[in-house]
Amino acid sequence: MINKCLFPVAGYGTRFLPATKAQPKEMLPVLTKPLIQYGVEEAAEAGMTNISFVTGRNKRAIEDHFDITYELEDQIRGTSREERLETIRGLIKDCTYAYTRQVQMRGLGDAILTGSTIIGHDPFGVILADDLCVGEEGIMSQMLKVYEKYNCSVVAVEEVPPEDVNKYGIISGQQLDERHTRVETMVEKPDPDQAPSNLAIIGRYILTPDIFDILRETPPGAGGEVQITDALQTQANMGAVIAYRFRGRRFDCGSIDGFVEATNFFYDRMKQEENR
Ligand code: UTP
Questions:
Q1: Theoretical Cys-Cys bridge with 109: which of 135, 226, 256, 276, CB 3.0 to 4.6 Å?
Q2: What is the rounded CA–CA span in Å between residue 43 and residue 61?
Q3: Spatial CB neighbours of 69, under 8 Å, sequence gap ≥ 6
Q4: Residue 95, domain extent
Q5: Ligand 1 pocket check for 54: Cβ under 6 Å
Q6: What residue owns the CA closest to ligand 1's atom 10?
Q7: Closest residue by CA, ligand 1 atom 15
Q8: Does the C-beta of 106 come closer than 6 Å to ligand 1?
Q9: Does residue 186 have its Cβ closer than 6 Å to ligand 1?
Q10: How far is Cα 230 from Cα 20, in angstroms, rounded to an integer?
Q11: Does residue 14 have its Cβ closer than 6 Å to ligand 1?
Q12: Total-model pTM
């Protein structure tokens, strides 16, 4: 049973400037819900109710979102608008929240290492909230089953167009069945002609806690940042990483195209539900 989930949210979100000048990109809404709430709902569905955020400057709105807003709640109590707070109230009640700060943006690997003081010695989930995932069963719940079977780190992967491999960590290895691959090689943002495959790691991980010691020894890699992919390669060398092709769909809400796609998808779904 894994009950901890880490959310690295320290990035600047420069692709969304000026919207992200004074607010975190994770608070941008797809319809009425901020991206971060979709992520926390996915973690909670998987039973990961100990939520930890690795934050940075300008991220206070996230803390406020997962807390009670007394004045507002008082004002709308007993009105029809109150039901709009139902899901967030449920998350506030059912989960605990902890925060720590990444002082310098030194990469995702460094952000995850910053979370080590909260996570301790247990395996844990990692969700990058700007990858918004939908599936009949939540992606993290699916990954938990993979972890329970293989007892090692798990990364969610999907096929991407060959020309896009330079935006992702790319894996290759021994295919175990249609959905599972034991990872042998992972490369961060390879040139398309050097990529070992087109299977890209998306923003969902389950990591075993030995990753922290490995990260401490991992020098900065691609882009001068400490890459989680490089640390995972050390685990993969021991046969301890499974790549899982999840069932569902992912929207890259860190990009404008993906964000608009997600908005259209959820809007259509909402309209279909209204007409039912
Ligand atoms: P991105 O590569 O999307 O970077 O980070 P970003 O800064 O958020 O966005 P752009 O590219 O400037 O628009 C992927 C995820 O890793 C986190 C980010 O918050 C995001 O969820 N991250 C990245 C950190 O927490 N710390 C880092 O040092 C780097």
A1: 226
A2: 20
A3: none
A4: 4-274
A5: yes
A6: 13
A7: 128
A8: yes
A9: no
A10: 29
A11: yes
A12: 0.96
